[in-house]
Write a structure and sequence with these properties.
CATH class of the largest domain: Alpha Beta
Number of strands: 9
Helix content: 40-55%
CATH topology of the largest domain: Beta-Lactamase
CATH architecture of the largest domain: 2-Layer Sandwich
Oligomer: single chain
Largest sheet: 6 strands, antiparallel
CATH superfamily of the largest domain: GAF domain
Order of helices and strands: HEHHEEHHHEEEHHHEEEH
Strand order of the largest sheet: 6-5-4-9-8-7
Radius of gyration: 21 Å
Number of domains: 2
Distance between the termini: 39 Å
Length: 248
């Protein structure tokens, strides 16, 4: 590749790095973007100006903060929704929320993390708010355990041997847990990742029997007691099966 070609590719990478900042929060000042992507302010300023000109970001003149522009939504509107669990599963998630009264989340695995790709918030005054787009580690939480427990054996071993797992983590005990989870068809967690929060999760398999995602019900631990989660597990499994039946 020519030097000009390398420069062009690097410019694209930098622009994408800037856009990816908006996966963690909705508004950014230019200086924080520069710090986040590790680029000089003048470089970031030029790239933001180009992205703004193309409609990918919008600058608020009053606050001097940037947010995503309408061009992003135009792109997302053209995503194929024919086999997108976040789209196809939304109605079933709303039904489950109305039935159980708690926050419903949908997670995909991305490497050694899970990403919340859809959420339906609880309508209760005291609730667990689940923002979409958040990345979480795979070694804690009901959905994480589901995404490992029902994975293919070879991939499961690769995940369990990943170097990113904390040194203190008891993998032998975790293996016992995921064997139990496979037998039950669901997983639970109580204050594993977040104090005062609990969750119950079930796997979503597509029509070919492949693990696609994890469906989770989460809420305050004083409401979602272990007994309550055992009672709700069948409803979560049923909803996960309904979503899976819509996926190729």
């Amino acid at each position: 590749m020519s030097e000009d070609g390398k420069s062009t590719v690097r410019a694209v990478e930098r622009a994408l790095d800037i856009l990816l900042c908006f996966t963690t929060k909705s508004e950014w000042p230019m200086t924080e973007i520069a710090d986040s992507v590790g680029l000089h302010k003048s470089t970031v300023h030029r790239m933001l100006a180009t992205l703004e000109d193309k409609g990918f970001v919008i600058r608020d003149p009053a606050s001097e903060r940037y947010r995503l522009g309408l061009r992003i939504w135009e792109l997302s509107a053209n995503m194929s929704g024919t086999d997108d669990p976040a789209v196809l599963g939304l109605a079933e998630m709303e039904r489950l929320r109305n039935m159980l009264g708690e926050t419903i989340s949908l997670y995909l695995r991305d490497g050694n993390e899970r990403i919340r790709i859809q959420a339906v918030q609880s309508s209760q005054a005291v609730r667990r708010v689940a923002p979409v787009g958040v990345r979480l580690p795979l070694y804690v939480g009901a959905s994480s355990k589901v995404l490992i427990a029902f994975e293919e054996p070879q991939k499961q071993e690769e995940l369990l041997h990943d170097e990113s797992w904390p040194a203190y983590f008891d993998k032998a005990q975790f293996r016992k847990q995921i064997e139990e989870i496979r037998g039950l068809g669901y997983a639970t967690s109580v204050e594993e990742r977040e104090q005062g929060a609990a969750a119950v999760s079930s796997p979503i398999f597509n029509r070919a029997g492949k693990l696609v995602a994890a469906l989770s019900v989460s809420g305050p631990a004083n409401r979602l007691t272990p007994e309550k989660m055992r009672e709700q597990a069948s409803a979560v499994i049923e909803a996960a099966n309904h979503i899976g039946a819509m996926l190729k």
